[in-house]
Amino acid sequence: ARVAVVVVAAGSGTRLQAAAPKAFVGIDAHSLLAHALRGVLAVPRAQVVVVAPAGREDQARTEAEASGAAARVSVVTGGATRQASVRAGLSAVWSDVEVVLVHDAARALTPPEVFTRVIAAVRAGAPGVLPVLPVVDTIKRVDADFVVTGVDRSDLARAQTPQGFARDILDAAYRSADREYTDDAALVAAAGHRIQTVPGDERAFKITGPADLERARALVAGAPM
Ligand code: C5P
């Protein structure tokens, strides 16, 4: 079954305090998007749909060409929310695709093994697959300046991407979604499907603020592209 990976890269990245939209900020000589594409393109033969900020489509195409796999990369324009951007990406998925992964470009250093685990679980029959990591901090429910209660972390997990789905299930869930969900797994769960977990990876952290960018720079300096 053919795989497509929708890479959402249309966020503004205001929390990064950079001049360019987040996907085009440099980690080293290469942008977040370039690094994200390197991981995604390790999935053999997969179609890759890059969802770019409006006005930055050509820049995204240039990154795709530099990756050396432009023939299997499509670029579409994103929307005002992540969910709208994913929806735009899904509209460009080839008709013969049966497994769709949705991935944040902001998780630019996600290693290929995570893609492999997610795809294998979807191929084995899971309607939806979510990479997760354990919660290591003690978690508190708070109300303004006071602690309300502790929360048992043993049944909590940190959700990452790529999240993978059977294509028909993801398309139908997006058609029926009537509000914004925090991620694709939540949207598909709301449509009545069980989401299976697989191990995530610390390197799949989301580059959100300046400290995350520093972490990404340190990692890449240790293992250049
Ligand atoms: O804003 P946040 O960090 O949750 O964004 C996660 C991913 O979703 C990023 O890769 C970002 O580029 C993407 N996104 C998008 N369109 C939006 C908002 C976010 O493609 N409107």
Automatic annotation (TrEMBL):
<feature type="region of interest" description="2-C-methyl-D-erythritol 4-phosphate cytidylyltransferase">
    <location>
        <begin position="1"/>
        <end position="225"/>
    </location>
</feature>
<comment type="similarity">
    <text>Belongs to the IspD/TarI cytidylyltransferase family. IspD subfamily.</text>
</comment>
<feature type="site" description="Positions MEP for the nucleophilic attack">
    <location>
        <position position="153"/>
    </location>
</feature>
<comment type="similarity">
    <text>In the C-terminal section; belongs to the IspF family.</text>
</comment>
<feature type="site" description="Positions MEP for the nucleophilic attack">
    <location>
        <position position="206"/>
    </location>
</feature>
<feature type="site" description="Transition state stabilizer">
    <location>
        <position position="22"/>
    </location>
</feature>
<keyword id="KW-0548">Nucleotidyltransferase</keyword>
<comment type="function">
    <text>Bifunctional enzyme that catalyzes the formation of 4-diphosphocytidyl-2-C-methyl-D-erythritol from CTP and 2-C-methyl-D-erythritol 4-phosphate (MEP) (IspD), and catalyzes the conversion of 4-diphosphocytidyl-2-C-methyl-D-erythritol 2-phosphate (CDP-ME2P) to 2-C-methyl-D-erythritol 2,4-cyclodiphosphate (ME-CPP) with a corresponding release of cytidine 5-monophosphate (CMP) (IspF).</text>
</comment>
<dbReference type="GO" id="GO:0016779">
    <property type="term" value="F:nucleotidyltransferase activity"/>
</dbReference>
<keyword id="KW-0479">Metal-binding</keyword>
<keyword id="KW-0808">Transferase</keyword>
<keyword id="KW-0414">Isoprene biosynthesis</keyword>
<protein>
    <recommendedName>
        <fullName>Bifunctional enzyme IspD/IspF</fullName>
        <ecNumber>2.7.7.60</ecNumber>
        <ecNumber>4.6.1.12</ecNumber>
    </recommendedName>
</protein>
<keyword id="KW-0511">Multifunctional enzyme</keyword>
<keyword id="KW-0456">Lyase</keyword>
<comment type="pathway">
    <text>Isoprenoid biosynthesis; isopentenyl diphosphate biosynthesis via DXP pathway; isopentenyl diphosphate from 1-deoxy-D-xylulose 5-phosphate: step 2/6.</text>
</comment>
<comment type="pathway">
    <text>Isoprenoid biosynthesis; isopentenyl diphosphate biosynthesis via DXP pathway; isopentenyl diphosphate from 1-deoxy-D-xylulose 5-phosphate: step 4/6.</text>
</comment>
<feature type="site" description="Transition state stabilizer">
    <location>
        <position position="15"/>
    </location>
</feature>
